[in-house]
Amino acid sequence: MRRRWNLARAAAGTVVGLLCSLQALPAWALDAAQQRALNEAVQQTSQACLHEMHHDTDEFSACVDARLQSAAGKPVEQLGTAYLGLVGCVSAARIATLHSDVCAQAYLARVDPLRKRFKLSDQDLCPTVAGDCRSRLAQIEALRRDRKPQK
Length: 151
Hints:
Layout: H1 2-24, H2 32-53, H3 57-70, H4 75-94, H5 100-117, H6 122-125, H7 133-146
């Protein structure tokens, strides 16, 4: 009897501890599997596509778009892939690479709804891609301001 009571107390303590830790997490937090999928999508897209950016923004976009298509039905992977596309195009826009501004706007239009779906802020996503988040976030915000009203 005493053994069952100790097991029940231990289980209750574990459940309470888990609930407390879950409440401490931000509302936007992805679960561990989603976070891994997001990071893997960023890394795989980076490995597959970033070398194209040195040649041509359009080739880079085609590579990212192909990866987005293969991630159909997997919104977390699409978010990671589109975010890497956005970051690549924003970087290319800094040096005025041809079509980079159009590319950046197109990926921003894909990233924002997915980001909002998972309740992630730009600050939450930024560290998934190496680099200077402060300037990247400023550039992304400038892209939003420059976005033309849709008819």
